[in-house]
Design a protein that fits this description.
Layout lengths: L1 H10 L1 H19 L13 E8 L5 H15 L6 E9 L2 E8 L5 H15 L11 E2 L8 E9 L9 H16 L5 E8 L3 E7 L1 H7 L3 H10 L4 E8 L2 E7 L6 H5 L2 E3 L6 E2 H4 E7 L15 E7 L5 H18 L4 E8 H31 L2 H8 L1 H16 L13 H4 L1 H18 L9 H29 L1 H4 L3 H18 L2 H22 L1
Helix pairs in contact: 1-16, 1-19, 2-13, 5-10, 11-12, 12-19, 13-18, 15-16, 15-19, 16-19
Keywords: Membrane, Transmembrane, Transmembrane helix
Pfam family, one: ACR_tran
InterPro entries: AcrB_DN_DC_subdom (IPR027463), Acrflvin-R (IPR001036)
C-alpha cells in the first residue's frame, strides 16, 4: 500500500504540488478562524440557577428556594452532581453535567423543571433564573464608569450606576460573543416612598391601601379606535409614573369629597437599594463598573476586539464628562502567552533547519525537510478548528519540530544516499527521468516502513493522555491532540519529500 502511494506521488507530481498549494491556502484561511486564548478552559459543564430574594435570611432561602430547586433537578440525565449555597438574599444552585452533554440541552432541561418549582416557592420571595452561558474563564473585560476631572459634582454614585445599567450595559449585551454584563458599584436607583404611620392612622387608612393605589395608578391601558375620515385614531390612556411628582400625585381615596394623595401620608424621594459593598477609583471616590462575560466556546480575542469597538462607539453617546476606563483586559494575557509560543516555535524551527542542513550536508535537502514544519503547522491548525481545539500555551506550545520532521529526514536522507551512490559510477552520472524516478521509488520504499513505524510509536506515547478525564483531560488533551494532528500529515509529507527529491535530482542532472 505504501509503495503504491509512493509510486503515485512520483508519477503525478503536478497533483501533489496542487495538493500542497491547496493545503497552504486553506491553512492560512483557517488561521484566521482559530480561537486564541492563554490557557485551556478547564471549567466543567455546568448550569447555574440564581435566585435573588431581598430581605430573607439564609435559613429561609435554603428551605423555601434552594431545596426545592435541588429536588426538582436531581434526576436529569447526564447530571454528575448538584452543589449549592444559601446566604442572605441569595440562592445559588450549580448543576454539573458530563462533558459530552450539550450545554443548551442541559439548560433546557433545567428551565423546564424550574417551571414546576415556581408553584412551590412562595410568592414574593424571588424568581429562579439561569446563569449566563459562560465559564470560569469567561471574565474577559472589566471597566469603570467614572466622571472626568472637574465633573465629580455632577455625577454621583447613583447617576454613574444609572448610566452603566441603562446606556453602557444594554449596548454591550448586543456584542457578538458576550454572554452577560454584570454591573456592580455605585448606587442602584430606586423611587422610595417613606410612609408616615401617624398620618396613616389619622386618615384611617392602612399601608395596603397605599400599595393598591400605587399599583392601580401606575399602568397604561388601551381602548378601541375612532375613525376620522381617512385616518384612524387609537385610544389609550397613559398612567405610568415618570418622576417623583407623579408618584406623590397618586390619589389613595377621597374621604368627605377631599382627595387624599400619596404625598399627604408619605415622603417620596429618590433612594437606592441596599448595598453590600462599594467600588472606588484610585482613592478619588466611588464609581460604577461591570464585568463582561464571554459566551462559552467563543474566541476571546475576537470578542474582546468587538467589545472595544463597541465601547468606543458608546463613549460618544455618554453624557459630557463621563468616560469608560478599562482596568482588566484579557488581550494582554493572551498576547503574552501567544508571544511566548511564537518565540519558542520560531527558535525551534530555526534550530531544526540549521541542524538538518548541517547533518544532511545539502542546503536544498535541508530546506526540503524543513518545509514540512509549516505544512504540519497548517494541517494541525485545520484539524484544531475541525475538532474545536483552541490555540493556547498548552496546545501550540507542545509542538516538537524534531518529531514532526523525523520521518521526512529518514526518507530524504535515504534518497540522497541512493543518488550519491550512483553518481560515483560515470555511466550513471546521466540517467533518464524514468531511471531517476525508479531510484527515488526504490530508496523511499525501503525506508518507508521504518519512517511510518517511527511516527506510530510517537503517537502511541501520547495515547495515555487521551484517556485523561475531568480537569486533567481538559488541560492536557489539547497538547496531545495538536501533536497528533501535526504527525498525521506524515504520509503527505513523505509524498512531498519524494517529489521534491526527484526535483532535486533533476537540478543535479541539468548541471551534469
Amino acid at each position: 500500500m505504501l509503495n503504491r502511494i509512493i509510486e503515485f506521488s512520483i508519477r503525478n507530481k503536478l497533483i501533489i504540488g496542487l495538493f500542497i498549494f491547496a493545503l497552504i491556502g486553506y491553512g492560512f484561511y483557517e488561521i484566521k478562524k482559530l480561537p486564541i486564548d492563554a490557557v485551556p478552559d478547564i471549567t466543567n459543564n455546568q448550569v447555574q440557577v440564581i435566585t435573588i430574594a431581598p430581605s430573607f435570611g439564609a435559613t429561609d432561602i435554603e428551605r423555601l428556594v434552594t431545596f426545592p430547586i435541588e429536588q426538582a433537578n436531581s434526576n436529569i440525565p447526564g447530571m454528575l452532581e448538584i452543589r449549592s449555597f444559601s446566604r442572605f438574599g441569595l440562592s445559588l444552585v450549580t448543576i454539573v453535567f458530563s462533558d459530552d452533554t450539550d450545554i443548551y440541552w442541559a439548560r433546557q432541561q433545567v428551565a423546564e423543571r424550574l417551571q414546576q418549582v415556581q408553584t412551590q416557592i412562595p410568592q414574593g420571595i424571588g424568581t429562579p433564573e439561569l446563569g449566563p452561558v459562560s465559564t470560569g474563564l469567561g471574565e474577559i473585560y472589566q471597566y469603570v464608569v467614572r466622571p472626568m476631572k472637574g465633573f465629580e459634582h455632577l455625577y454621583k454614585e447613583t447617576e454613574l450606576r444609572t448610566i452603566q445599567d441603562w446606556i453602557v450595559r444594554r449596548q454591550l449585551l448586543g456584542v457578538k460573543g458576550v454572554a452577560e454584563v454584570s454591573s456592580f458599584g455605585g448606587k442602584l436607583k430606586q423611587y422610595e416612598i417613606a410612609i408616615n404611620p401617624n398620618k396613616l392612622q389619622s386618615f384611617g387608612i392602612t399601608i395596603n391601601d397605599v400599595f393598591s393605589a400605587i399599583d392601580r395608578n401606575n399602568q397604561n391601558t388601551g381602548g378601541a379606535y375612532i375613525e376620522k375620515g381617512p385616518s384612524v385614531l387609537f385610544i389609550r390612556t397613559e398612567g405610568l409614573v415618570a418622576n417623583v411628582e407623579d408618584i406623590g400625585n397618586i390619589s389613595i381615596k377621597t374621604p368627605q369629597n377631599r382627595p387624599l394623595f400619596v404625598r399627604d401620608v408619605a415622603e417620596v424621594k429618590i433612594g437606592y437599594a441596599t448595598r453590600y459593598g462599594a467600588m472606588c477609583y484610585n482613592d478619588q471616590g466611588e464609581v460604577a463598573g461591570a464585568i463582561v462575560m464571554m459566551l462559552k466556546g467563543a474566541n476571546s480575542s475576537e470578542v474582546i476586539k468587538n467589545v472595544k469597538d463597541r465601547i468606543a462607539q458608546i463613549q460618544k453617546t455618554l453624557p459630557k464628562g463621563v468616560i469608560i476606563e478599562p482596568f482588566l483586559d484579557r488581550t494582554k494575557m493572551v498576547n503574552n502567552a501567544i508571544g511566548t509560543v511564537e518565540k519558542n516555535l520560531l527558535e525551534g524551527a530555526l534550530i531544526v533547519v540549521f541542524v538538518l542542513v548541517l547533518f544532511l550536508g545539502n542546503f536544498r535537502a535541508g530546506l526540503i525537510v524543513a518545509s514540512i514544519i509549516p505544512l504540519a503547522m497548517l494541517f494541525a491548525i485545520i484539524m484544531m478548528n475541525t475538532f474545536g481545539v483552541s490555540g493556547n500555551l498548552m496546545s501550540l506550545g507542545a509542538l516538537d519540530f524534531g518529531l514532526i520532521v523525523d520521518g521526512a529526514v529518514i526518507i530524504v536522507e535515504a534518497v540522497m544516499h541512493q543518488l550519491s551512490h550512483h553518481k560515483k559510477i560515470p555511466s550513471l552520472s546521466k540517467i533518464s527521468q524514468e531511471e531517476m524516478d525508479g531510484q527515488v521509488k526504490h530508496s523511499a520504499g525501503k525506508m518507508m516502513n521504518s519512517a511510518v513505524f517511527g511516527q506510530i510509536i510517537i503517537l502511541i506515547v501520547y495515547l495515555p493522555i487521551f484517556s485523561l478525564q475531568g480537569i486533567e483531560g481538559k488541560m492536557f488533551k489539547p497538547m496531545a491532540q495538536t501533536v497528533a494532528f501535526a504527525l498525521r500529515i506524515y504520509t503527505f509529507s513523505y509524498l512531498y519529500s519524494d517529489d521534491e527529491c526527484t526535483f532535486l535530482e533533476q537540478k543535479d542532472k541539468a548541471k551534469a
